[in-house]
Amino acid sequence: MIVFDLTCGLGHTFEGWFQSMEVFEAQLAQDMIACPHCGSMQIRRVPSAIRFSRKDSGADAGHAAVRGAAGTPLSGSVTVTPETMMSLFRQMVSSIIANTEDVGSAFAEEARRIHYLEAPERPIRGEASLEEYENLQDEGIEVMLLPLLKKEKAH
């Protein structure tokens, strides 16, 4: 598995996970990669903060970026194993849960209230349909799709 730092034509940055460089290039050529923030198909790779290498592959197996607190790059090299990836995923989920307010099914409504300054600005999480998500994006409200995050499943 390779994780690339990507950016769209509008400068939004995000990660993309691919089986190989060839799969990434094929998906890019077929316009199968879109910016999760704006839907742009003008995607390009940007330099990553650190390299990951896999024990079972040859030299220069893959590259990925991991950012520490406040966007600071982590230094060093990490061996990518399923256990390492699961550990990183659990850390991310735990951090999201610890640093956001769960507004449940009222997510779309509360995101609008925050955007239009009708409620205090704060990080929130909750549930929204794909249609609600797309409507929020159409209104210029920055939201991100994530799997359902439940505290009991973070560990």
> What is the helical fraction, as a range of percent?
25-40%
- The average pLDDT value, as a whole number, equals 76
State the major sheet.
3 strands, antiparallel
Question: How do the SSEs run, as a string of H and E?
Answer: EEHEEEEHEHEH
Quaternary state of this entry equals: single chain
What structural category characterises the helix and strand content? alpha/beta
Count of helical stretches: 4
Question: What is the CA-based Rg, rounded?
Answer: 17 Å
Q: Which stretches are low in confidence, meaning pLDDT under 50 for 5 or more residues running? A: 50-78
- Domain module tally: 2
Distance between the termini: 23 Å
β-strand amount: 15-25%
Shape: globular
Biggest sheet strand order reads: 2-1-3
The number of distinct β-strands equals 8
Question: Any overview of this molecule?
Answer:
The protein has helices spanning 21-29, 82-98, 107-115, 130-138, and strands spanning 2-8, 13-18, 43-46, 50-53, 62-64, 78-79, 101-102, 124-125. The chain folds into two domains: 2-79, no CATH class; 97-153, no CATH class. The protein is built from four helices and eight strands; from the N terminus they run E-E-H-E-E-E-E-H-E-H-E-H. The protein is of the alpha/beta class. Strand 4 (50-53) and strand 5 form a beta hairpin. The chain is globular.
